[in-house]
Amino acid sequence: MTTYVAPVRDMRFVIEELADISAVRGLAAFEEITPDLVEAVLEEGSRLAQEVLAPLNKIGDLQGSKIVDGQVQVADGFSDAYAKFVEGGWPGMKFKPEIGGQGLPSLVAGALEEMWQSANMAFALCPMLTQGAIDAIEFHGTEEQKAVYLEKMVSGEWTGTMNLTEAQAGSDLAAVRTRAVREGDSYLITGQKVFITWGDHDVAENVVHLVLARTPEAPEGVKGISLFIVPKYLPGPDGAPGERNDVHPISVEHKLGIHASPTCVMGFGDKGGAIGYLVGDEGEGLVYMFTMMNRARLAVGMQGISIADRAYQQARQYARDRIQGSAAGHPGRVSIIHHPDVRRMLMTMKASVEAMRAVAYTTVASIDIAENTDDADTRSRHHARVDLMTPIVKGWCTELAQEVASLGVQIHGGMGYMEETGAAQHFRDARVTTIYEGTTGIQALDLVGRKTLRDGGRAQRALLEEMGEVSTELASFPDLADVKLCLDSGIDAHRRALEWLLQSGTEDVHAAGSVAFDLLMLMGTVCGGWQMVRAALVAQRRLGEDQGYGELYRTKLVTARFYLKHLMPRAQAYLQALQAGSEETMALPEEQF
User: Which pTM does this prediction carry?
Assistant: First the structure.
């Protein structure tokens, strides 16, 4: 099993050259974020990932977590690692100083999160969910709630969870049955929630649950759902955890992967009712929860990149070390990295990871601008871009992560199928990313419905216009003529898919649902190619400067060409599938399946 090495140089390249952190630095909130500060933060974050979190990854996979005396006990070393995580101030990196945060741009914090997820995805899920809970309370909580919970959660002293679904509900939150009955200034919560990530543990002194529940007079459907803060320990007058609330873990799920992350069935009110505090207005819970979910969806997309990069690093090292067979032009037996088919798989992994990273980071940079600019037009444009790209980052990056992790197993051959190498763990850990925080199908329907048909394709046309500008720029570089042809083909596929959907998506009631996945994957593929071309343009301009980056630039040119020639053609296949519509998908009667 290889050790993890954070790809700091490539992260910095994307942050500086593609995500354009200079535009983020131009905002008043981030004017002190110098290049030296970013470099120092990334280096320190990588040290935490490599030296503290990565060594626990296998231990956590083997040991998992369990319930002891009514509380979840995590794997060996996780509590100490979390203490170091909190001591370093890492939980509050992206939050405002007013609530105890460090005030870093989400762009830089996103790179840190990628490192931590790569090093130990099961561990990093805990602060990831806490961040979403912080956002929900900060945006929708009362001033009193903010005063009680935010600084404790931002510091990492307390962690947060998202309690949405129930056994009978799945993704259909309209079927939620958990009850909330008013009692004075609070509510009594009764019911069960399932799939609660880090729902209970022993690494922090309190767990703050955000819970969806119905009040007695609430109407059926999503309009009847409210959001409540339900702490594990009720805060006392001094703010410290006091009496144990009536909430506890019933069981820890036995999962395919991320074994060290305690996924709990949580029971509320077995002894009369867990005390909960209403967030905002009754009936608006799902609206508030989407504040948390949208950020979580981007974070899960980042998980896809993270686990794909970890799988790539391991496969690359194994390919360098494993001696097997002979190869043309090389005497004697060779390491398998000399075999063309292994090269094909490694290049697919490498190019995919770099494309995903660029797509995700540029999206996160738009969050920083949208939330901190004073210019209304700029704010509107970047909000629209984040809204459009969120389902793509979540859906495409996690789907591609399955392929990359699977290729990692394949490169190991038979040893990849053995747990001892670690390649299988990455494959298993990656598998959940297409499921939680909204399946790929849900992301695709969001992309088609809310993000395309609702605005008549306006946000997509703005995206296509930006891609076209890059294609025009390519015309000035004859050495990249082959790359331009491939990019233009992808842009054309995207444009034709949009036109087909706007015309046929409203004529056939099944069309949107049948082709949504194809549109999502097409757009992810084309956006990835667009970002790889942007990277190639930077590399082409900078090659003569070198300054120690010559090797990086030459590599970027090769990787971009591989992506455009070998992976971008997938866009045409997705287009053909999309244009086929729903007929064959919906043709069979139920009994013929």
Answer: 0.96
